[in-house]
Design brief:
Keywords: Endoplasmic reticulum, GTP-binding, Magnesium, Metal-binding, Nucleotide-binding, Protein transport, Transport. This is GTP-binding protein SAR1A. GO terms for molecular function: GTP binding; GTPase activity; metal ion binding. InterPro entries: Small_GTPase_ARF/SAR (IPR006689), Small_GTPase_SAR1 (IPR006687). With about 250 residues, the chain is an alpha/beta fold. It has two domains: about 190 residues, 3-Layer(aba) Sandwich (Rossmann fold); about 55 residues, no CATH class. About 40% of the residues lie in helices and about 15% in strands. It contains ten helices and six strands. It has a six-stranded mixed sheet with strand order 2-3-1-4-5-6, sandwiched between helices. Helix 4 crosses helix 7, helix 5 runs antiparallel to helix 6 and helix 6 packs across helix 7. It is globular and about 60 Å long. The structure holds guanosine-5'-triphosphate (GTP) and magnesium ion. Magnesium ion (MG) binds next to helix 2.
């Protein structure tokens, strides 16, 4: 009971109680994604090796579900980010999940042919997923689970030399059609370090001055505007990210 109360308390304090949120943790290597995930999971500060392979953490008690995908931030790992939010083929697969196998294959076959014809890398990635889905029901459910509710994008606010690199990756995510309506929480991490950038500085360097949608309760339902805000935080000091998650939770359906 103690565990349940504690867990409820953590999620409620982050505004995620009774929500089924699937959240991607993205950002350059060394930004603090894994540290944050484990802080959310068991409030412990753990020193991690750089993440080599995508991992996910799912916690579920009663109606509470919270699933976070921690995708590594180093250059090779960034190549798979898209696999976790791309729509298109993956969405089609999920639509036909409940049908009989024969219908599924009839629908998927033309897609497979299309993937083979597409010679570039993304065609091969889609092909890989299609084959995995057909051959394994488990894989299939894994793919369905990848519809994203929100992106938490972490930036090391102390690593000013990499702001441009971080902006480049962020811009690519923000301009991706698949994420057009997905809320973005930008966390400027490591403000416990004295020379870390200020919030204004970070906004400026990430080119977000005209794109943030406001802290607090801002109704964007009819506006066609994607929720996006910057919050500064220190994960090691357990400060700042709670406000960010509360802000984000109002936009998770
Ligand atoms: N000073 C300070 N260091 C932090 C903070 N959060 C994380 N770190 C440190 O930053 C380093 C990288 O953290 P990780 O969580 O491994 O970073 P990551 O984003 O998962 O990196 P990749 O797995 O390589 O993509 C670790 O040494 C952490 O201890 C913070 O709030 N303040
Ligand atoms: Mg990591």
């Amino acid at each position: 009971m103690f565990l349940l109360d504690w867990f409820y308390g953590v999620l409620a304090s982050l505004g995620l109680w009774q929500k089924e949120a699937k959240i991607l943790f993205l950002g350059l290597d060394n930004a603090g994604k894994t540290t944050l995930l484990h802080m959310l999971k068991d409030e412990r500060l753990v020193q991690h090796q750089p993440t080599q392979h995508p991992t996910s953490e799912e916690l579920s008690i009663g109606k509470i579900k919270f699933k976070a995908f921690d995708l590594g931030g180093h250059q090779i790992a960034r190549r798979v980010w898209k696999d976790y939010y791309a729509k298109g083929a993956l969405t089609v697969i999920s639509r036909f999940s409940c049908q009989k196998d024969v219908i599924r294959i009839a629908v998927l076959l033309p897609l497979i042919v299309r993937c083979v014809v597409m010679s570039h890398e993304s065609g091969m990635r889609q092909l890989y997923f299609l084959v995995a889905v057909i051959s394994s029901p488990a894989c299939h459910w894994f793919v369905i689970d990848l519809v994203v509710d929100a992106v938490v994008y972490l930036v090391d606010a102390n690593d000013k030399e990499r702001f441009a690199e971080s902006k480049k990756e962020l811009d690519a995510l923000l301009s991706d059609e698949s994420l057009a309506t997905v809320p973005f929480l930008i966390l400027g991490n490591k403000i416990d370090i004295p020379y870390a950038a200020s919030e204004d500085e970070l906004r400026y360097h990430l080119g977000l001055n005209n794109f943030t949608t406001g802290k607090g309760k801002v109704n964007l339902v009819d506006s066609n505007v994607r929720p996006l805000e910057v919050f500064m935080c220190s994960i090691v000091r357990k400060m700042g990210y709670g406000d960010g998650f509360k802000w984000m939770s109002q936009y998770i359906k």
